[in-house]
Amino acid sequence: EGSSEVPLLRVGWSVDFSHSQLGEDEFSYGFDGRGLKVENGKFEEFGESFGENDVIGCFADFEGAELVALSFSKNGQELGTAFTVPKEALGARALLPHVLCKGCAVELNFGQRPEPLAPVPDGFVFIHEVPVEQRVRTAPGPRSTEECEVLLMVGLPGSGKTLWAQKHSQENRDKRYNILGTELVLHQLRTRGPEPEEELDAKSRELLTQQAAQCLSKLVQIAPRARRNFILDQCNVYNSGQRRKLSAFKGFCRKVVVIVPPEPEWEQRLQQRRLREGDDVPDSVMLEMKANYSLPEKSEYVDEVVFGELGRDEAAPLVLRWKEEARKQLPPSEKRGNRRNNRNKRNRQNRNRGQGYVGGQRRGYDSRVYGGQQQPQYWGQPGNRGGYRNFYERYRGYDDRFYGRDYDYNRYRDYYRQYNREWQNYYQDRDRYYRNYYGYQGYR
After folding, report:
1. Which intervals carry biased composition (Basic and acidic residues) (predicted)?
2. Does the domain formed by 147-330 have CATH 3.40.50.300?
């Protein structure tokens, strides 16, 4: 409610292990609210568009000798057959109801309601009325968190983490892994259609990436509450990030998968990623990831460590060399001042000047007149602790003693201005990349 984005709704049928994006892979058949039918990623015009308060009927006719006919209706008006599926190709696969929605809410009726929401064509019955022995149920999920597992991918950008996760998920379909990664969320955010996808400008692409990062961050937070198997497909090279994410999955079987390919192979994959996505990882971000790369060990929050390509004996020296080289090229670490600690430090340093507590008694500045004249108040209202006549005057004598009488603060500032600008640009690039790809919850 209140969103300017057009809602997405597809209804239809698919088989077990189909992707969540209805109609975008084999044996997945959907009727799109834009008046389209979609099968295996191919869109064609069909029927008419539908939206709020419309009732869509999905019908499967198995009485044909060789084909299964899939048809739809809108508000009781039949729209005709949309798909015909050869029974021989379908084999033992069962067709399952499938709904894909984005930005809308739906109500489903499988026959549990006393009256249908719209008229049903003659000869069709609701799934609820099909005898139990003729129904096919998908395999039940884990009954407790002890039966669930989470795989945490660890590796630099372009190392092949996503490819490994997808391959592992296909080879272990019975575990029904839910892959949580930025690329998957980005794919789900983009609404596909019959027209080729238009290229987004830099601003729109960055905004979409930020939205995907926020979605992914939220999904990772709520995942430990679901009894499912997960693969967290992010870089996760920081030890603090590995510990924080896996600690949330208490009770799960927690595994870490480290992907460290040979260096020439990794550079080739990184180049392919750059050409495919058109978005390169900033050098500053790559250097910081290398400098903080932490190979996980078995611990209280890690039950098993698996190396996907190079083994530990080969990967450890390579990672160590990356860390040493990156730390030499990185600028000084960013200072993140804590205001409260700094204030306490100043109080301790200046207690002889009247600040802080001395001898169990609070001492403050005398607000009374000095030399018979009322001094202007620079700090707070009259009657408080008073203030300095010139806040910076107290440092001038120190500067003159240390640097000499010809010390010029502006000249010192100009000398380092270029260095400060480069330092600030480095952290701005880094923070923008992490904000886009890891959300606002922090990248470590």
Report:
1. 327-336
2. yes
